[in-house]
Specification:
- 34% of the residues lie in helices and 22% in strands.
- By secondary structure, the protein is an alpha+beta fold.
- The chain has 2 domains: 40 residues, no CATH class; 85 residues, no CATH class.
- The chain has a two-stranded antiparallel ribbon with strand order 1-2. Strands 3-4 form a two-stranded antiparallel sheet.
- A hairpin with a 2-residue loop joins strand 1 and strand 2.
- It is flat.
Length: 125
Amino acid sequence: MNVFEHTVPYRTLPIWVWVGKKETAVNVATNPQPYGQKPRFDLLHPLKQWLDSTEIKNQKLARFLCKFIPSQCPFEREVKVGDRTLFYIPPMCKLNPLYEQVVGIRFRALCYLADECGEDVTTYC
């Protein structure tokens, strides 16, 4: 097992290459995938990056996001008849491929309202 590959996810290593009559350094990125796995193609990667890099700078937008994105998964249900539980529907938010990004943008909106605007955010929790 190569410890370097598993502890540092992405490194740029200079590799010396002969170009014409002189030697130059070329940066080559190491494989960010764990050892022995092929890289996966993620169709939603650009959207995930965009959501992660979005900054909240508008109080109206921050309020809208905090109201629109629920603080807990709304799909979790327990179907009961009297005292007996017929069946249980688990939270399905984790199946959403953009779940972490959506929760992150809601958190950034809450932080903006609390830190920058000085607003009480307990109403959104």
